[in-house]
Amino acid sequence: MNSNFEREANERSADPVTNTPRDGFVRRMLIGVGITVAVLLVLLLLWYAIDVLLLVFAGILVAIFLRGLSDKLSERTGLSGGWSLAVVLLALVTVIGVAVWWLAPSVAEQTDELTSTLPRAVERLQSRIERYGWARQIIGQLPPTDELMPDRADVVSQATGVFSTTFSALANFVIILFIGLYLAAEPRLYSTGLIRLVPIGKRDRARTVLGVVSYTLRWWLIGKVASMIAIGIFTWLGLWLLGVPLALTLGILAALLTFIPNIGPILSVIPAALLALLDSPTRALYVLLLYFVIQVVESYLLTPLVQKRTVSLPPALTIAAQVLLGILLGGLGVILATPLTAAALVMVKLLYVEDALGDDVEIPGEDTVRE
Question: Rounded distance, CA 178 to CA 260, Å?
Answer without folding.
Answer: 23
